[in-house]
Amino acid sequence: PSAARFDWVQTLVLQGQTVTAVAYDEDGGLIYVATRSDANGARMLVYDAATHDLVTAVEVGQLVTDIAVSPRGDLVYVAGSGIEGSTGIAVYRATDLGAANPAAPVIGITEALRMTVSSDGTLFVLRMGTGEILAWQDLSIRDWLAAGGPAGGPGNRRRFALGHAVGANRPART
Question: Can you say whether the dihedral through the CA atoms of 143, 44, 80, 119 is positive or negative?
Fold first, then answer.
């Protein structure tokens, strides 16, 4: 017979909220959870992965479609609408997230997005409606942030066109 084992699993209670995106910062031990409620709009909740304690909560707009974290864990990318009063990708410095109302510059993109960050820090963004993939190298994003996040987004953007929409908007196969 095997020995009895009891593992405590903590449940995160998100009353009246719907989870719209999740990202994990393995090195920093943080879990980023985007939620949406009709009453409060979108929030990003940051949890300690080891203790499951809430570290901070940030009001981030109307709807978050995705979250990504840089390999260093120092930049948090939040895509959606109403983010910092705009639509696109807000780039938060992780150290600022504990502030009362952290501000972040926004890379303006006006459609549903999915994101990932490569091990070298390159941000890849999929525009769902067009099937276009955009990419910015880590240094371009950091230079843009150092300049105050001016309109137009980071320089040196790379663009790849798939030639069709993806996801629910993709063309039917025949």
Answer: positive
* Length of the chain (residues): 174
How many other CB atoms are found less than 10 A from the CB of residue 70?
Answer: 21
Q: How far apart are CA 10 and CA 21, in angstroms?
A: 19
For residue 173, pLDDT beyond 70: no
Q: What CA–CA distance (Å, rounded) separates 161 from 105?
A: 26
pTM flag (> 0.90): no
Structure tokens at 150: 């001016």
Dihedral sign from CA coordinates of 69, 146, 152, 102: positive
Q: Is residue 155 classed exposed, middle or buried when 0-12, 13-18 and 19+ CB atoms within 10 A define those classes?
A: middle
Other beta carbons within 10 angstroms of residue 44's beta carbon come to 27
Residues 92-138 pLDDT 10s: 999 999 887 888 999 998 887 899 999 999 999 999 888 899 999 99
- 121 neighbors 72 (Cβ within 8 angstroms): yes
